[in-house]
Amino acid sequence: FLPHLVASLEQVEQSYIMVKPDGVQRGLVGEVISRFERKGFKLTGLKLFQCPKELAEEHYKDLKAKSFYPTLIDYITSGPVVCMVWEGVGVVASARKLIGSTNPLQAEPGTIRGDLAVQTGRNVIHGSDSPENGKRETALWFKEGELCEWTPAQAPWLME
Ligand code: UDP
Ligand code: MG
């Protein structure tokens, strides 16, 4: 039953997903992981981590000119985050849908932000916005030995 998995290898994307400090403090880690697990994506990296300022700045470097950048860096470094890498075909766009709009008040019910948050500055979760950024952010937050390649037992029951 493996050939179909091998054939789609080049379509497999990585999304860097992070429960932000508010999500950790509010006890939402299990809830977030559960939503990605139930969807059927594969977890290949997971750690609780206190983010240093330099890493937060590198991660959000594209937003450096924004007025909210300093408070964003304070927010992300204000307590531990849970760093994850989820893999799968189409995982990047799908994760963004599961997460919902940046402003939780505009996020649809059923999404993580739509169900669990009220403010943009406390929106619980990060998800990569493109497959390229998925790779970039994975390399930024994880060392090679921290990622795990494995085949979930459910693989043939998720993909025909
Ligand atoms: N953010 C903020 N104020 C804003 C816009 C964004 O505090 O007006 C924060 C928020 O935590 C958001 C992060 O900056 O998740 C990154 O912004 P981006 O536009 O990339 O949103 P995302 O990709 O997280 O939905
Ligand atoms: Mg973004």
Description:
Belongs to the NDK family. Residues 12-149 form the Nucleoside diphosphate kinase-like domain. With 160 residues, this protein is of the alpha+beta class. Helices cover 41% and strands 18% of the residues. It has a 4-stranded antiparallel β-sheet with strand order 2-3-1-4. The longest helix has 11 residues, at 29-39. It is globular. It binds uridine-5'-diphosphate and magnesium ion. The site of uridine-5'-diphosphate has 9 residues, from loops.
Estimate what percentage of residues fall within beta strands.
15-25%
The helical percent reads 40-55%
Average pLDDT metric: 95
* Main sheet overview: 4 strands, antiparallel
Task: Give the end-to-end Cα distance, rounded to a whole number of Å.
Answer: 9 Å
Number of helices: 9
* Ligands, deduplicated: uridine-5'-diphosphate, magnesium ion
State the shape.
globular
Computed CA radius of gyration, to the nearest angstrom: 16 Å
SSE string, helices as H and strands as E: HEHHEHHEHHEHH
What is the count of β-strands? 4
Structural class call reads alpha+beta
Regions with pLDDT < 50 over 5+ consecutive residues? Answer: none
Strand order of the largest sheet: 2-3-1-4
